């Protein structure tokens, strides 16, 4: 007990230094009303920032007067409209942003789109920076630019997937000059941070094992042979890959913020590392480390702002079970596990008894070695069961439009042309992309329409590489 109170006090000190946020996603059937959530976060936790994944005025208004800094998100579908029209953007700021600020919601950032670079959508991608520029100009016009920054959050899919060590980090070719460079120039000019969603959970491999991801290797760690720097955890390695990429483009002075990180407390039996103990360890250690002032090997002696994903489980999300079990809190706001962010000690403690029997039964026990046993470690990327047809078509167009990727097998006469269905062709194309970029989970995101599987989808003469 003393130990946990002590660690809470340490974390409060960390919060002052860095800033701890949570992502408030709401794709769930039963969640508490936003006003209750706002009150709980403001009074019961050390969280000082909340990130909404949309611009829902009711949810945003709930945070008025709490003092919490609020990041709101422009939905991807709106990004091209902001890019096209200065008048539309001004009107959006006038009707959707200014009233919030006037009502006392501490809007601190507007994030333009979500993981735009991973959406495999070229018009959206090309609209990103112009939309951010128009939005910033409209905020200047409304005298809100001093208070509200404009940024956007990226998955690690912005990096070249061939990156093996942090010092080799570089932005993905083709995106670097077309999108990332003007983006970084915009962020530098406006003083806004480069925001990344960094998930060591999705980087688990034989080379980056669980203990490294969970900050458990102590001072042993892994030497980056490129820089001679020692890495003691996977999060530092991911952040420094981003720092290296920025340094390489001459934008090392732009600040980096961890817009999302987290760990699922349950998942499929083939998903390595899922579980409440691991989730608790990861989140507590990540918060403590980023707030400690130690910094990363490439950016020593500094703190990093971080937002934990996610406030609640979201049972309406597609994909493997883990996608629906990133929550820190149950819908009644009792903690799923001790993430170290509560101010009131009476809340602290494991609450596995609060999981309903139905939910517990639906969650298979994690089996860390299932992956290797099933498929010799091989994995494939296929469409998620409920994936939208239009998005699957975009995925095919995107993958097969890349130089160096050969989609001839799904063209007429190719070995995977039959069955001639969108689902089957998308599976082939998405897997090809995943495989040719080095089997990274983030190369199977496709705007949350892809899932990694251990079941080989090959059939007949159609061979999935
Ligand atoms: C609003 O959030 C910022 C962080 O972006 C913080 O510095 C400031 O104190 C907050 N304002 C209020 C009124 O609480
Ligand atoms: C970081 O802090 C340590 C201890 O205060 C100091 O020795 C070191 O020179 C600092 N490094 C940088 C890059 O500022």
Automatic annotation (TrEMBL):
The keyword Disulfide bond applies. It comes from the Eukaryota. Transmembrane segments: none annotated. InterPro entries: GH, Glyco_hydro_17, Glyco_hydro_17_plant, X8. GO terms for biological process: carbohydrate metabolic process; defense response. Residues 1-17 form the signal peptide. Keywords: Disulfide bond, Glycosidase, Hydrolase, Plant defense, Signal. It catalyses: Hydrolysis of (1->3)-beta-D-glucosidic linkages in (1->3)-beta-D-glucans. Residues 379-464 form the X8 domain. GO terms for molecular function: glucan endo-1,3-beta-D-glucosidase activity. Its EC number is 3.2.1.39. Belongs to the glycosyl hydrolase 17 family. This is glucan endo-1,3-beta-D-glucosidase. It comes from Lolium multiflorum.
């Amino acid at each position: 007990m003393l130990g946990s109170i002590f660690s809470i006090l340490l974390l409060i000190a960390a919060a002052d230094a860095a800033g701890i946020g949570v992502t408030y996603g709401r794709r769930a059937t039963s969640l508490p009303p936003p006003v209750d959530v706002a009150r709980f976060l403001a009074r019961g936790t050390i969280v000082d920032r909340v990130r909404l994944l949309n611009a829902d005025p009711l949810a945003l208004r709930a945070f008025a007067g709490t003092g919490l800094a609020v990041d709101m998100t422009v939905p991807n579908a709106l990004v091209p409209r902001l890019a096209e029209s200065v008048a539309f953007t001004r009107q959006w700021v006038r009707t959707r942003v200014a009233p919030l600020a006037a009502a006392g919601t501490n809007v601190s950032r507007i994030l333009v789109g979500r993981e735009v670079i991973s959406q495999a959508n070229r018009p959206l991608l090309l609209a990103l920076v112009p939309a951010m520029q128009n939005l910033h100009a409209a905020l200047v016009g409304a005298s809100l630019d001093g208070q509200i920054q404009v940024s956007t959050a990226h998955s690690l899919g912005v990096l070249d997937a061939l990156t093996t060590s942090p010092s080799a980090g570089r932005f993905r070719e083709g995106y670097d000059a077309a999108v990332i460079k003007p983006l970084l120039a915009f962020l530098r000019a406006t003083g806004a941070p480069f925001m990344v969603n960094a998930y060591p959970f999705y980087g688990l491999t034989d080379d980056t094992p669980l203990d490294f991801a969970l900050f458990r290797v102590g001072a042993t760690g892994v030497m980056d042979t490129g820089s001679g720097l020692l890495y003691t955890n996977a999060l530092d390695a991911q952040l420094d890959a981003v720092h290296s990429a920025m340094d390489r483009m001459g934008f090392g002075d732009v600040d980096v913020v961890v817009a999302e990180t987290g760990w699922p407390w349950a998942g499929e039996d083939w998903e390595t590392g899922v579980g409440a103990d691991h989730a608790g360890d990861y989140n507590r250690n990540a918060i403590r480390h980023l707030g400690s002032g130690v910094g990363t090997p490439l950016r020593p002696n500094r703190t990093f702002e971080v937002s934990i994903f996610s406030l609640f489980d979201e049972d309406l999300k597609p994909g493997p079970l883990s996608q629906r079990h990133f929550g820190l809190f149950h819908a009644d706001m009792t903690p799923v596990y001790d993430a170290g962010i509560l101010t009131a000690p009476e809340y602290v403690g494991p609450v596995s008894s609060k999981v309903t029997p139905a939910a517990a039964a639906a969650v298979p026990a994690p089996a860390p070695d299932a992956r290797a046993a099933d498929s010799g470690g091989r994995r494939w990327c296929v469409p998620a069961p409920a994936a939208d047809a239009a998005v699957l078509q975009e995925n095919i167009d995107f993958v097969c439009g890349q130089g160096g990727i050969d989609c001839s097998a799904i063209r007429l006469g190719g070995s995977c042309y039959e069955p001639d269905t969108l689902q089957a062709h998308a599976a082939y194309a998405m897997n090809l992309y995943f495989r040719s970029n080095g089997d990274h989970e983030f190369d199977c995101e496709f705007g949350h329409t892809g899932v990694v599987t251990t079941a080989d989808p090959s059939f007949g003469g159609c061979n999935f590489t």
